[in-house]
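Just wondering, can you check both lines?
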Amino acid sequence: MLSQVFYLLRSRSDGKYLCAYPNPDAAVSYLLMFREDYDALSYLNAHAAEVADRFGVESISGSSVKTLLERWGFNGVGVVQDPLLPNIEFLTTR
C-alpha cells in the first residue's frame, strides 16, 4: 500500500476532501480513496452528478496517506473497490 498511488476527490471551493461517515451517530470520518483517477470520476458521476464540477481529482502516494490523515483528523480510509455500487473497504488507523 505504501508504494501505490491513490486518487482523492477534493472540493474546489473549500479544499476539503470527500469523506464518508459510515455511522451517522458517531463522529468518525474516513477519507475516500480510489485506485484509479477514472474511478473517482465515475463515483462522482454516479452518485453526485449535480456537483461533480465542484470537485477535482488529486493523487497521493501511499506513503503520504498517514500524514494527510493526521493533518485532517480522519479516523481511517475508505478504499472504494467499485465506484458504481459503491463497494468501500474501510480501514481504521487506530
Notes: Residues 37-47 form the longest helix (11 residues). The chain has a mean pLDDT of 93.
